[in-house]
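Q&A log
Question type: sequence-to-structure
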Amino acid sequence: MDSLYIYNKVYLLHQEVTTDSRRPAAGSMFFALRGERFDGNAYAEQAVAAGCAVAVVDDAAVAERLGDRALLVPDVLTTLQELAAEHRRRFRGTVLQVTGTNGKTTTKELLAAVLSRRYRVLYTQGNLNNHIGVPLTLLRLRPEHEVAIIETGANHPGEIAALTRIVQPDCGLVTNVGRAHLEGFGSFDGVKRTKGELYDYLSAHDGTLFVNGDDTDLMAMASERGFAAEHIVRYVPGAISADSGAEMSMTWIDSEGHGHRVQTHLVGRYNMANVRAAATVGSHFGVAATDINAALTDYVPSLGRSELRRTATNELIVDAYNANPTSMMAALDNFCNMRHAHKMLILGDMRELGAESASEHTRVLSAALASDAKTIWLVGEEFGKAAAAQNDARVTCFPDVAAVKSCIATSRPEHRLILIKGSNGTRLHELPEIL
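Response status: OK
Response body:
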């Protein structure tokens, strides 16, 4: 069945979309997606029984059983993406796409906070930034929205290009390019080529590029694509305040040279570029400086991204949602600049580094050993192998987070400043509640 027909004859009547058969909204469309370990077609009848108006399926037998409550298509995922692209084409507001190695979710959240001070904004929830999350987000666009902020992620070449064709951004930014997902990208150059696929689209469609002019990689990527000067907006200047504490305080400079100091709830100097991005985009779209500052001041990070948590016995820097060599080194550099009598590191393995995993874990461990941390806990096989070549009494290795929890139960660290950082798969996000 043709996607355009489905859009006009079905989606416009049933604009709630779900891929979860357990709690569908009444009258919604159920998309029976397939995965490595599941087949949504098996749940289509359950979804309809639970209240869905129709199920989009690619299994003829299921379609036959459901009769006129089913839409049989060649591929459910392709149909979902085509519907999202068509819906976006009809949107008359501004679409801004965000990607990058590190900081894209925080930047997206900051952009949403700032632009919401003047506009009705739809933005990616959580980290729904892949080939499924992006179309689901776009299909939530409604006539009342004026701006859409769409986060896109990738771990293989071509993925940003594919998502960008769905998003069709009017403007966009790449937060940075770093050493992450090297197993999928093949090399750092592969990372740059893939993230640069957003630049390719914006250049070809006369879109606006917001770019950190202090980032030589990003500026080179923009230059290679021949952007006209009027289509490039550089981030506003900014500087960390001299008395900035654990939570970053900084000043950004507007186009008229006026300084605006903002006290954030973000931990880490590496977040300055994210704040500058939000101030830049907000200024470009006419948000008043006072409103920009209010939004940046009020924003509180969550989801284990640059969070400062104070427990009864410790101060925690929780950055345990994800980790790669670039973000690890930035977190360690910031940690070294913080003042505390008893510092502690809990670092978990970095995933998807391929052939460079051993060397990158060794490099990060060397930086950790050069820090002023008095205690260093390493979690996972890769850090364990890197530590085997070291002989430092500060280091303790754990095979997994369960072993760390057992240790905490018997010898709870107290009165420490603790950086907790690792890839999501190491599950270090389970530690703050017991520290």
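Response note: The longest strand covers residues 259-267.
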